[in-house]
């Protein structure tokens, strides 16, 4: 390849040290691709001037889709022609990020043919990200991948590529099939994923338990967190084994947030009615403790990063839902959620912000979920509340009933 | 070669074809796992079957040739199966114990770094930075590389009271779950943006630009057919720049980073938490950001020395109090740490019970 050789004294500093170097990766790709080579020169310039040179994304994509490709152009394309166009292609990853060498190598071969050879494995949302190609290659890239069973991921004001933790594939704690639900919802909502029709982005992330390895609670509009309704089963022989290496009182009993564990030096007991299923004891004593009974998930909603008016963590909407294929109840609920958001959201308003503006009541009534104390940390502390005529009729009817029976009902 | 016929809306391939046979057999029937060392763990099924996982560090930006190298290793020792983690490490999945040591030997010989499992520091969740984003006010990959070189011993051997999850965001948009990390670096602008009036009318939409501002600092400027920005209200989030390129916010001398601590994602013991601001500003010093790296290492060391076993940074600080954290860590307390945005009500101390330092 007859690429320009860039002098990169600043980036070279980042090839030293034990942690694997992204600069080494970029240079490796640069040996085969003029685009990647120019990306190295372009980045060295950023390091020397302490600023970036990428323009805002332009509108590029493939026919029939409104997302999956993010346009990227450099302000200094004359100086670095290889990155004048440097678009990103998002490939929807398989659930749980499992691959075979054969499949991944095929992805690489296609990418080397049309793009820079640079990737992110993976992007923050979960897609396999291909960094740097030109507009004229996009249709060919799409044809090559889609004909082999790969599709693009989401971008813009659309359903973003759902993702999940490793789940039942390699974890003893998963309370539902995170991989299957991710695959199933992704297939069900292909139109919403590829053709942006929402007010803003909508993310669905599925974690099998409260460890939340996919960070659903912090960054998904719909966070599906696995849980159970039943007792924690105790293997007392394994408890004895743990006692040999662990201070069970200090590390387990005293650290239980609801103080529902008792250990007398011989036997462990759990008051399951008091347990809030935080997973601390189970993760520390995985051989001795495991949930039993009904499995499912808590649906939380609303989390997002700080832009525009501050970050949010998802909060409880549905305390418990059973999740078994074909997930009809969940899918119906998601459609109702989107309908309400569509009616009430302004452009660039995430659903959490819209719920904040319009109120939980409007939202819960629209999706048919009753108010429950599990949804809140504490009740409101101000007296500025709404009473509908129906609410008042309900209160009055209750009091009339009390007069008849002579018994108060609060 | 001819281009094949495109298909639309096929979605991702079914994951099952990528699961090794031992996983297909024990799917949903794993009994327990054990961490053998920071680079290796073993999962044991109810059937008695075992699956060893060897975790390897990744810079996340990978050249296709490196992916091919990973694939070839997987083909040699793992029947071709491998996976990536939500924090972008690569995991080799071994079902034949005899292949475990030879795999590790080859990984070591090829320069791959094993670690990241358990109570230490694993890969850093980060954004694109100068490598590929228009809004970046620092380079995320460079910061990550500099941080992890310095903290490397916590990846491959040295242990901490609990895991410490690190993140880097190259602007306040914070792609990824940066806002709920034990320690995160957030790049910040520090100056009111400049509006290029002559370009505004052709490139921007007035209501969108006004609506983009969280503090209502933007108002119409009819004389210029543009907008003006109230310097007393603007806190440099850059959201206006995102919707309107002629509003320029980049400033190489003033752009820098802030450090936030004490966030977590999981619900173990205590509820998920946001990270909170402790160091408001450090200058951008590429290529190795020495002061940022020193600050993070310092906070990790103060935590390691003072926290109880199983306490995450945020849990430890909540137990001792933020006033004690600032004094223990010897960090200056500044106006920037007092919330004057949407969370002020929740963050003021409404009692006279506190520690003197």
Provide an overview of this structure.
The complex is a heterodimer of chains A (410) and B (357). With 410 residues, chain A is α+β, with helices and mostly antiparallel strands. Chain A folds into 3 domains: 139 residues, 2-Layer Sandwich (Alpha-Beta Plaits); 146 residues, Sulfite Reductase Hemoprotein, domain 1; 61 residues, 2-Layer Sandwich (Alpha-Beta Plaits). Helix content of chain A is 35%, strand content 15%. In chain A, the strands form 4 sheets. A 5-stranded mixed β-sheet of chain A has the order 6-7-8-13-14. A 4-stranded antiparallel β-sheet of chain A has the order 1-2-5-4. Chain A has a two-stranded antiparallel sheet with strand order 9-12. In chain A, a hairpin with a 6-residue loop joins strand 4 and strand 5. In chain A, helix 2 packs across helix 3 and helix 4 packs antiparallel against helix 5. Chain A is globular and about 90 Å long. The N and C termini of chain A lie far apart (80 Å). Chain B has 357 residues and is α+β, with helices and mostly antiparallel strands. Chain B folds into 3 domains: 81 residues, Alpha-Beta Plaits (2-Layer Sandwich); 161 residues, 2-Layer Sandwich (Sulfite Reductase Hemoprotein, domain 1), CATH 3.30.413; 54 residues, Alpha-Beta Plaits, CATH 3.30.70. Chain B is 28% helix and 20% strand. Chain B contains 12 helices and 15 strands. Chain B has a 5-stranded antiparallel β-sheet with strand order 1-2-3-6-5. Chain B has a 5-stranded mixed β-sheet with strand order 7-8-9-14-15, with helices on one face. A two-stranded antiparallel ribbon of chain B has the order 10-13. In chain B, helix 4 packs across helix 9. At the A-B interface, helix 1, helix 2, helix 3, strand 3 and helix 4 of A face strand 1, strand 4, helix 2, strand 5 and helix 4 of B. Strand 3 of chain A pairs antiparallel with strand 5 of chain B, so a sheet runs across the interface.
């Amino acid at each position: 390849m007859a690429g320009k050789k860039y002098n990169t004294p600043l980036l070279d500093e980042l090839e030293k040290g034990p942690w694997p170097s992204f600069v080494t990766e970029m240079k490796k790709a640069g040996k085969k691709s003029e685009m990647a080579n120019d990306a190295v020169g372009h980045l060295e310039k950023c390091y020397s001037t302490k600023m970036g040179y990428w323009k805002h994304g332009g509108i590029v994509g493939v026919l029939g889709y409104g997302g999956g490709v993010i346009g990227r152009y450099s302000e200094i394309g004359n100086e670095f022609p290889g990155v004048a166009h440097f678009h990103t292609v998002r490939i929807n990853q398989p659930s749980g990020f499992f691959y075979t060498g054969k499949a991944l190598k095929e992805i690489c071969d296609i990418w080397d043919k049309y793009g820079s050879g640079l990737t992110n494995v993976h992007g923050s949302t979960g897609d396999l990200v291909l960094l740097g190609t030109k507009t004229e290659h996009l249709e060919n890239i799409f044809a090559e991948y889609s004909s082999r069973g790969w599709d693009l991921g989401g971008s813009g004001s659309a359903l973003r590529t759902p993702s999940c933790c490793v789940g039942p594939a390699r974890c003893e704690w998963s309370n539902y099939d995170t991989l299957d639900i991710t695959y199933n919802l992704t297939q069900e909502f292909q139109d919403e994923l590829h053709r942006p029709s929402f007010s803003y982005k909508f993310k669905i992330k599925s974690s099998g338990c409260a460890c939340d390895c996919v960070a659903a609670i912090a960054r998904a509009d719909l966070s599906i967190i696995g849980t159970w309704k039943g007792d924690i089963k105790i293997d007392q022989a394994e408890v004895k084994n743990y006692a040999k290496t662990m201070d069970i009182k200090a590390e387990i009993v005293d650290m239980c947030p609801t103080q529902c564990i008792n250990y007398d030096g011989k036997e462990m007991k759990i008051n399951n009615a008091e347990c809030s299923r935080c997973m601390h004891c189970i993760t520390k004593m995985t051989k001795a403790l495991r949930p039993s009974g009904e499995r499912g998930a808590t649906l939380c909603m609303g989390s997002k990063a700080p832009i525009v008016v501050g970050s949010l963590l998802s909060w409880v909407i549905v305390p418990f839902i059973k999740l078994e294929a074909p997930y009809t109840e969940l899918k119906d609920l998601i459609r109702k959620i989107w309908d309400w958001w569509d009616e009430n959201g302004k452009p660039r308003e995430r659903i959490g912000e819209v719920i904040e503006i319009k109120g939980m009541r409007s939202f819960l009534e629209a999706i048919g979920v009753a108010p429950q104390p599990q949804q809140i940390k504490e009740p409101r502390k101000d007296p500025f509340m709404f009473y509908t005529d129906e609410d008042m009729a309900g209160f009055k009817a209750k009091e009339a009933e009390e007069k008849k029976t002579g018994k108060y009902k609060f | 070669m001819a281009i094949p016929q495109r298909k639309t809306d096929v979605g991702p391939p079914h994951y099952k074809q990528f699961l090794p046979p031992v996983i297909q057999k024990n799917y949903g029937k794993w009994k327990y796992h054990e961490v053998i060392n920071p680079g290796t763990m073993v999962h044991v099924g109810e059937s008695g079957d075992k699956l060893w996982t060897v975790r390897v560090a990744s810079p996340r930006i990978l050249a296709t040739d490196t992916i091919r190298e990973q694939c070839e290793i997987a083909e040699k020792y793992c029947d071709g199966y491998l996976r990536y983690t939500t924090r972008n490490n690569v995991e080799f999945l071994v079902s034949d114990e005899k292949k475990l040591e030879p795999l590790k030997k080859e990984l070591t010989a090829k320069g791959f770094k094993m670690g990241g499992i358990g109570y230490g520091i694993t890969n850093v969740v980060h954004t694109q930075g100068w490598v590929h984003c228009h809004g970046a006010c620092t380079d995320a990959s460079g910061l990550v590389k500099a941080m992890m070189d310095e903290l490397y011993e916590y990846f491959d051997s040295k242990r901490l009271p609990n895991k410490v999850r690190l993140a880097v965001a190259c602007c306040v948009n914070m792609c990824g779950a940066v806002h709920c990390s034990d320690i995160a670096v957030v790049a910040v602008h520090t100056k009111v943006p400049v509006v290029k009036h002559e370009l505004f009318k052709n490139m921007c939409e007035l209501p969108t630009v006004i609506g983009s501002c969280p503090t209502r600092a933007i108002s119409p400027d009819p004389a210029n057919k543009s907008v003006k920005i109230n310097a007393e209200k603007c806190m440099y989030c850059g959201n206006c720049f995102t919707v309107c390129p002629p509003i320029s916010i980049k400033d190489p001398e003033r752009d820098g980073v802030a450090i936030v601590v004490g966030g977590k994602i999981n619900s173990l013991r205590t509820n998920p938490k946001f990270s909170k601001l402790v160091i408001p500003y450090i200058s951008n010093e590429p290529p190795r950001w020495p002061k940022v790296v020193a600050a993070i290492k310092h906070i990790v060391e103060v935590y390691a020395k003072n926290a109880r076993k199983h306490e995450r940074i945020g849990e430890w600080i909540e137990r001792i109090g933020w006033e004690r954290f600032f004094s223990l860590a010897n960090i200056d307390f500044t106006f920037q740490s007092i919330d004057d945005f949407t969370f002020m009500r929740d963050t003021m101390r409404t009692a006279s019970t506190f520690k003197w330092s």
